[in-house]
Write a structure and sequence with these properties.
The complex is a heterodimer of chains A (113) and B (117). Chain A is mostly beta strands. Chain A is built from no helices and eleven strands. Classes of the chains: A mainly beta (113), B mainly beta (117).
Chain lengths: 113, 117
């Protein structure tokens, strides 16, 4: 049971480049989400999904795209990277009912130059 | 929309002493869930403790306990017998009750705790 895995752990992009952050979980969780963490801002929700084929926007969705074709995977796409997207990105998953905690991946530190 | 406020950006405590981190939140819901997460320098988010709003009794997990004041919308974390490994960022989080769109966690901005030897 690997929990929530994210790849890569670190990434440097040039402005305008695109890339996909990968997230996978093996706990059969319905809910998956992406957060970004910036100094002094806590964690802010980018996009989330409550099941395969269902996604929705969070607090800061602009510049990001997601899809959920399987229960296990929830990739985050940066369409045209900007310096403002320099951040640490976390993927998390949980069951959708009850007081179940959200399990977090180890994070991806992204720098856009 | 719910908001979560952590009013102490940084705190320090002597090893073996007790420290309390504060958290307040704003919601119109009656039933909800509250969490404290710890983020050590390794960056991994770790659940410390959780509380269901309908439970009167305060949650405890070993050296960690909460003071949940529902009417005041306050959810503070007490760490007893502080250890060097408690040095971390601590985030308070709110989750609405079960229902459509209710799975999202709203986080506070965090409190950086340093345990001093």
């Amino acid at each position: 049971n690997a929990g929530v895995t994210q790849t890569p752990k670190f990434q440097v992009l040039k402005t305008g480049q695109s890339m996909t952050l990968q997230c996978a979980q093996d706990m059969n969780h319905e809910y998956m989400s992406w957060y970004r963490q910036d100094p002094g801002m806590g964690l802010r929700l980018i996009h989330y999904s409550v099941g395969a084929g269902i996604t929705d926007q969070g607090e800061v969705p602009n510049g990001y795209n997601v899809s959920r074709s399987t229960t296990e995977d929830f990739p985050l796409r940066l369409l045209s990277a900007a310096p403002s997207q320099t951040s640490v990105y976390f993927c998390a998953s949980s069951y959708v009912r009850g007081w179940y905690e959200q399990y977090f991946g180890p994070g991806t530190r992204l720098t856009v130059t | 929309a719910q908001t979560v406020t952590q009013s102490q950006p940084e705190m320090s405590v002597q090893e073996a002493e007790t420290v309390t981190l504060s958290c307040t939140y704003d919601t119109s819901e009656n039933n909800y869930y509250l969490f404290w997460y710890k983020q050590p320098p390794s960056r991994q988010m770790i659940l410390v403790i959780r509380q269901e709003a309908y439970k009167q009794q305060n949650a405890t997990e070993n050296r960690f306990s909460v003071n949940f004041q529902k009417a005041a919308k306050s959810f503070s974390l007490k760490i007893s017998d502080s250890q060097l490994g408690d040095t971390a960022m601590y985030f308070c989080a709110f989750r609405p009750p079960d229902g459509a769109g209710s799975y999202q966690l709203t986080f506070g901005k965090g409190t950086k705790l340093s345990v001093i030897p």
